[in-house]
Prior knowledge:
Layout: H1 18-31, H2 35-61, H3 66-73, H4 77-86, H5 95-107
Amino acid sequence: MVSKVKKSSExxxxxxxxxxxxxxxxxxKAERVDKSTIIDRALEHYAKDWKLQRAVxxxxxxxxxxxxxxxxxxxxxxEMIDILGKRxxxxxxxxxxxxxxxxxLECG
Length: 108
């Protein structure tokens, strides 16, 4: 038997266009879940994308290190390097970044 961890939840209300409501209902019917689940999944995807985009922006501005950008995006440094490479964005890795990464490795 698979046990699911129950997340705490809060009820909120939103206003959506009829077109979006129809799309949500269509997906919910096809997935055999309720509309709340579909909206929650969509927000989860959006939040993941937003965190990654924000991390990339901050990194490119020089506001955060590579390690911190990866942490913000909730991905590994290697994944962050791969994403930056795919977007043809230059790595900004200096001695300070190396020292920070070494400290993180020491801490576990």
